[in-house]
TrEMBL record, chain B:
This is TIGR03943 family protein. It comes from the Bacteria. InterPro entries: DUF1980, DUF1980_C, NA-bd_OB-fold, UPF0703_membrane_permease. The keyword Membrane applies. Signal peptide: none annotated. Gene3D superfamilies: Nucleic acid-binding proteins. Residues 149-241 form the DUF1980 domain. Keywords: Membrane, Transmembrane, Transmembrane helix. The keyword Membrane applies. Pfam families: DUF1980_C (PF21537). The chain crosses the membrane at residues 38-59, 84-106.
Length: 344, 251
């Protein structure tokens, strides 16, 4: 679209015809009757056949699931982006330096435990983590927060307790395994992580001297929301495609073997992309699986799933998202198996 | 994406959210009722954000006068939303003009029936004496497969749900879809109906009948099935993603 506009402007300049009105509104290209005709006929045809295709039961289910994931996540995405824009515009950088220990090795566990304070889905934590890095927080600490916030906040733990009545060990195991995974990933980033993997655009600068803080807040809010929202839609589409293509009866085929079931539920958590406040109920309903496998489902789900990978790729860059997600899955499965094996 | 388009996108998304949550009940096709306040707040917030942006944009234009490209002249470098933002038009327009229906027979026919939660086996209260007795599909399944006292035996019950075909058999499924968060985690509970021809799929019906003897009542060998005496059409309940009794018995 933007490119078309530019091309239209260039044509205009080349023709030396249109008076530059300075408002950036492109003039009409010469072949506009043809364009008009195309604009009338092509969308009509596409709409007719596309519409009939859209009304098939499978496509309707796909659209419903896709829209459901988007609608469910939008309020939390708004919360996260508002919070991240507020961090950017209103919180001075020295606050973070005072709260977090100077040495990143020590900042990681503090940031992980701080995840308790953000009561939201995983979508909210991605933009917040980006802003934290922008405000000078060590990336390792920010990523620890990114992983722990959606997994161990009070809303999620309460939901887990409700979904597994009379089984407090499950809540404790979830808390420990998630926190452990977040810490290990933070330290792993300190040990092996490279800043080049992060897209340079992700290094935000925070409040600029002289500008209005409110304007800064609004601009950041809008930009972050549009950005993350677009990637949320990508993730929702991927989830809906899996949901409609693979019948849930396949799920039961894996329930028998203990190792296969752990790996299968980890994979299921990634492709289903259920939000972290609800995944406990889904885990509870997978009653054919062992408790350890269900714990792994709940540990992996809030940290890695299709919509999160899309969100992270959009925010931090693809090189980061792929490496980080792959490592997180491995660590989360190990943590789930170890802690689940000990407690459940 | 250009600034004016971004404003349009924000306002469209907000209006779309308000349309499904504030002005209609369409949101119940996608998420649970508890989300309503959050959705309304999000819709209002998006519209405000779009409006604030429009005001800021207009102000800056007046200030700048000749601000050539119209895009932001000062400090920070978000000179426009990324391409991915275009995708947000899909849900926004879909919410406004083309809201897909609630999940139904297609989804249910691909799922096994949800295993009804097995609670303590002996805490079944005596059944009320009303006849026909309105019951949920989950309750009926639980009574049939777990109630050792066999209180359901010989009782006429009335179940409500929508129709899902069961292949070429002469029976069909009475179905409910339940969600725990949004439609992505839908699970279905089904009761097989014998003795009447299947109505068209996705029709909401109330079925009156007695347990279809198959297996030993009160054990898991008993199948959740009903011999239908009568089938009548009912209106679709407002909140379809639950397995609850209809508020008005006749719908």
């Amino acid at each position: 679209m933007q490119r078309t506009d530019q091309r239209a402007e260039e044509t205009e300049v080349a023709d030396a015809g249109g008076a530059a009105d300075g408002e950036g509104a492109p003039g009409w290209p010469r072949f506009w009757p043809l364009l008009l005709l195309g604009a009338a006929v092509v969308p009509g045809t596409v709409l007719y056949f596309g519409g009939r295709w859209m009304e098939t039961p499978a496509m309707q289910a796909w659209r419903t699931v896709c829209l459901a994931v988007t609608v469910q996540a939008l309020p939390f995405l708004l919360l996260g982006t508002a919070l991240s824009a507020a961090i950017n515009a209103f919180v001075p950088a020295r606050v973070f330096n005072r709260v977090l220990p100077r040495r990143p090795v020590l900042a990681v566990p503090v940031a992980g435990a701080a995840g308790v304070v953000l009561p939201g889905c995983e979508c909210a934590s991605v933009p917040v983590a980006k802003r934290l890095i922008g405000r000078g927080v060590a990336p390792a600490a920010a990523f620890t927060f990114l992983l722990s916030a959606p997994a161990i906040n009070p809303v999620v733990l309460t939901a887990t307790a409700v979904a597994f009545p009379g089984n407090p060990a499950m809540v404790v195991a979830r808390l420990l395994a998630s926190l452990g995974t977040a810490w290990v990933m933070g330290w792993l980033w300190l040990w092996r992580g490279r800043t080049e993997w992060l897209r340079p655009a992700a290094r935000y600068r925070g409040h600029q001297e002289g500008g209005s803080r409110w304007r800064e807040f609004l601009a950041g809010f809008q930009h972050d929301f549009l950005h993350a929202g677009g990637f949320l839609v990508v993730g929702a589409m991927a989830t809906a495609t899996f949901n409609v293509m693979v019948p849930p009866s396949v799920v039961d085929a894996f329930a028998g073997s203990p190792w296969l079931s752990v790996l299968f539920l980890a994979g299921l958590a990634i492709v289903l992309a259920v939000c972290s406040e609800a995944d406990a109920f889904v885990a509870a309903s997978l009653s054919g699986f062992s408790p350890v496998a269900r714990l792994v489902f709940m540990v992996v789900g809030p940290m890695v799933d299709l919509k999160l990978i899309a969100l992270q790729a959009g925010t931090f860059g693809r090189a980061f998202a792929i490496r980080f997600s792959a490592a997180t899955v491995v660590v989360a499965v190990l943590a789930g198996v170890l802690i689940g094996g000990a407690l459940l | 994406m250009r600034r004016p388009l971004q404003m349009v996108l924000l306002v469209l998304s907000g209006v779309g959210l308000l349309r499904v949550s504030l002005f209609t009940d369409l949101y119940l096709r996608y998420v649970k009722e508890g989300m309503r306040p959050l959705l309304i707040a999000s819709g209002v917030l998006l519209i405000l954000l779009g409006a604030a942006d429009a005001v800021a944009y207009a102000c800056r234009r007046e200030d700048g006068g000749h601000a050539g490209h119209g895009d932001d002249g000062h400090g920070h470098h978000h000179s426009g939303a990324p391409r991915a933002a275009w995708l947000l038009f899909l849900p926004a327009l879909s919410l406004l003009f083309y809201a897909p229906p609630a999940l139904g027979a297609y989804t249910a026919s691909r799922q096994p029936s949800k295993t009804v939660t097995y609670e303590d086996e002996n805490d079944f209260d005596p059944l009320p004496a009303t006849s026909p007795l309105p019951m949920t599909l989950s309750d009926f399944t639980r009574r049939v497969q777990q109630d050792r006292t066999q209180a359901i035996k010989g009782r006429t019950v009335r179940l409500t749900g929508f129709v899902t075909s069961a292949g070429q058999d002469d029976s069909w499924f009475l179905t409910r879809i339940m969600i725990s968060c949004c439609a992505a985690d839908a699970q279905s509970v089904k009761v097989r109906i014998h003795g009447t021809p299947a109505p068209p799929a996705n029709t909401w019906v109330a079925v009156t009948g007695t347990w279809h003897p198959d297996g030993t009542l009160g054990t898991r060998s008993a199948s959740a099935a009903l011999d239908a005496r009568s089938v009548e059409k009912i209106d679709k309940p407002v909140n379809a993603y639950t397995d609850a009794l209809p508020l008005t018995p006749t719908g």
